[in-house]
Write the structure tokens for this entry.
Amino acid sequence: MGASTRHWRRTSAVELDPLSPQNHRFLAATLVWQGKYDAAMEKNRNALDLDPNSAQCAVGWTNIQAGKFSLAIPELKKVYAIDSIGSAAGYLGFAYAASGDRTKATALIEQLGRESSGKFISPAWPAIIYLGLGDRQRCLDGLDKAYEAGDPWLMQIKMDKGFDSATQRMYARCVCDE
């Protein structure tokens, strides 16, 4: 299924159920992967209008994908205040690192490490922060751990603009050489 087919299906889902924030978020993700950031942000805002808690992380992620790290931070901080262990922590840490705030990025890695002693924290989230910090080896180590844990988030790594092509190739080699 090509990108245009996915876009058509997502658009159809929004037309069939325009009151579903989830449909707007899914269409936004498809638009992000096509590089249509403004259109994606509009769909994320539609989702927020329908449910104020539904798309804050998606807004932050869209800003990261567009390279607007300073705009991503306030949105991701809102989500992080509610859920400090999931994707919000990883993406917030990445945005901090990419915008030059190494101290806050490193503090999030440390916090995720402390919390992982009592519950499962996907190794993908510290990995994406290490990527933002420019530490590719620790990023790859974390992605390997996420792979071993069967983390479904890894399915989107090829599409995620945060992971540049060199990192994607290196990780693909690591996974495929086993």
